[in-house]
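Second opinion, please. Pick holes in both lines of this record:
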Amino acid sequence: MAAATFLFAACGNPSSTSTETPAATEAPAEAPAPAAPAPAATGTADVTLNGGDDMKYDLTEIKVKEGQTVKLTLHHTGKMAADAMGHNFVLLAQGVDLSAFAQAANAAKDNDYIPKDKAADIIAHTKTIGGGESTEITFTAPAKGTYDYLCTFPGHWAMMKGKFIVE
């Protein structure tokens, strides 16, 4: 019993021999966790999104920081022309019904498949491009949350969509 008491007392004794130093144990508690994300939010998020003749984006999830400047470059990696296999990027506001928006976009050929009466539902969008073309937009990331993005060219939204996550 005396030996067990001695062992327990030695474990709590700061002068006992240990492989850990007090500084190493305390360092993680002193590091300020919130300071790390701040620099990323002030920089620009460069996002490259590719879409080809297979009607798929290469990214189905994009993550950025709230308030961050987003520079999005859309590349059409296919060969087909914009009138046959056009692609765009449309970032929707939270709560917008993806299917209903896409259906409205089908009728907006005269406006690059961007429905004029749904402007309030859109945070940002590119123009529609064809094979071998690229386009770029710059916008400010919205409030924290998850948003939908899609290609509004007729019939593409079912496969060409993703989540835009703002942290």
